[in-house]
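Ligand-bound model needed. zinc ion.
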Amino acid sequence: MSKRVINPSRNAVVALAAAGLGASMVFGGGAAFAADSKTTPVAANPAAAVAAQAETQAAQAKVAQQAKAAKAAAAKKAAAANAAKKAAAAKKAAAKKAASWVKPVGGYTLTASFNQGGSMWSHKHSGQDFAVPVGTTVKAAHSGVVVKAGPNGGGDGPAYGNAIVVKHANGQYSQYAHLSKIKVHVGQTVKTGQTIAKSGNTGNSSGPHLHFEIRTTPNYGSALNPAKFLRAEGVVI
Ligand SMILES: [Zn+2]
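Prediction:
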C-alpha cells in the first residue's frame, strides 16, 4: 500500500513547477506586448499617437522647407550664373565695338577713289571721297586722339580746307577734309563713332563731300587705300 501512495511533497513541486512555467509564459507574453507597443504607439496610447503624428508632420514640414530652400538657392545660383554670362557677353560686345571701325559719314555716294588721277589733284587722289550734303555729321572712324584740327588742312595745305587728323592705337591715322565745321581740338580723345565735324566744301573741292584718308603718319604723303582699309576692318561701304 505504502508504495502506491503518491508522495504529496513531490506533487507540490510539480504543481509549483507548472505554476512557475505558467507565470513565466504570462510574463513573457506581457513583455512581448510591451516591446511591440513601442513600435505601434497608435494602438497603445492615443495621446502618444497624436504627439507622434505631430512630430512626423513637423519633420515632413522641415524636409519640405529644406527642399524649398535648396530649390531657391539653386534658382539664385542659376540667376547669378545667367547674369554673369550676360555681363560677359556685354563686355565682349563692348570690346568688339571699341575695337571696330565705322563709316565716317552716312547717306553718301562714293565718288573719287584712292589713287584716281584727275585735274583736281597735283598727284594721284590720296583718299576716298564720300559725296554728302554740306552739314552732314562726320564721325571718328575709330577711337583715338586728335593730332590736327583746323583750316589749311590742319597744317597739311590749303587744298584740304578745314581738316582733322586722328591718331589711333594701331599706329595709323585717319584724316577728314573739306569740312564746314570742326567740333574737336588737338589733344582731344575721341571715341569710335563720335561726332567730330560737319562736312563741307572747303579747300580744293569740286562739290560738297568728305575727303577721307588713312595714313601711316600724321602727314600728307603716307596714305593707304582707305576703302580697302575699312573693308578689311569689316566696314561695308
Ligand atoms: Zn578727295
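The two ends are 144 Å apart (CA to CA).
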